[in-house]
Specification:
With about 240 residues, this protein is an alpha+beta fold. It has two domains: about 120 residues, no CATH class; about 100 residues, no CATH class. Helix content is about 45%, strand content about 15%.
């Protein structure tokens, strides 16, 4: 599998919902992006998505096939879809559980406006194969320039190892989301650089690939702010 760069839509989804690099991959053939069922369950909980009792369309215990319809709601937005499992599309012995997973995951992706761009890992057996492609920070952002000591240049400085305590991945996610939000909320180059110095140790509680991802976000936002300020200076001079 070639190392393909993510589409803007997939990148935005990962950033918005703090999807880890091992929770999303490209399916064999490169025609679909797949996200783990557990990741979708977590996002559904975080976004307060609720489900109504499913409607059973058909169920044949002897044939091990089932079709249900599931309705879901996120805020004022509502969506519904079907989930189905049968010997022709499912090798899992627990076909009823698979039917539920497929239906709920489709509703979640619809509510997140991502269905069609992303599919659940429960959609097809091919999707469950070991990740042919693990999404890495360099698949999303340009490589970060480092000095001879491996320290980032013109970016968030390294954290002080003695000043941070690693968190569980579940506890890292809100930190990751908040740091990313703060970067994008900064409107001046000087303020962004000050933020980087003051918050470098907050970055240290995250996994290395998440740190690298945030440095990529920082570099892109810094470049955008510099371009904006250059344009402002030129307009003032003219």
């Amino acid at each position: 599998m070639p190392n393909l760069r993510l589409t803007p839509e997939i990148t935005e989804f990962m950033e918005k919902y703090a999807i880890d690099s091992d929770e999303i991959w490209q399916a064999p053939g490169g025609k679909a992006w797949v996200v783990k069922h557990k990741a979708l369950e977590r996002v559904a909980s975080e976004q307060k998505i609720s489900f109504e009792r499913p409607t059973i369309i058909s169920c044949d215990l002897a044939e091990k096939s089932m079709v249900i319809c599931v309705f879901g709601k996120m805020g004022e937005r509502e969506e519904w879809t079907f989930g189905e499992a049968s010997p022709s599309n499912n090798k899992n012995a627990y076909f009823a559980a698979m039917t539920e997973k497929r239906a709920k995951d489709r509703v979640i992706l619809k509510l997140l406006a991502a269905h069609g761009e992303l599919y659940s890992s429960e959609e097809a057996d091919d999707f469950k194969r070991p990740n042919p492609h693990v999404t890495r920070p360099e698949d999303i952002h340009e490589p970060i320039e480092c000095d001879d000591h491996g320290h980032p240049v013109d970016n968030i400085p390294p954290h002080d190892p003695d000043a941070v305590r690693k968190l569980r991945v579940a506890d890292q996610r809100p930190v990751f989301a908040e740091l990313q939000k703060e970067i994008h909320a900064t409107t001046k180059v000087s303020d962004l650089q000050l933020w980087a110095e003051e918050n470098r140790n907050r970055l240290g509680v995250l996994k290395p690939d998440w740190q690298q991802h945030l440095r990529g976000v920082y570099a892109e936002h810094l470049a955008a702010l510099r371009q904006q300020e250059l344009g402002d200076d030129m307009r003032m001079a003219g």
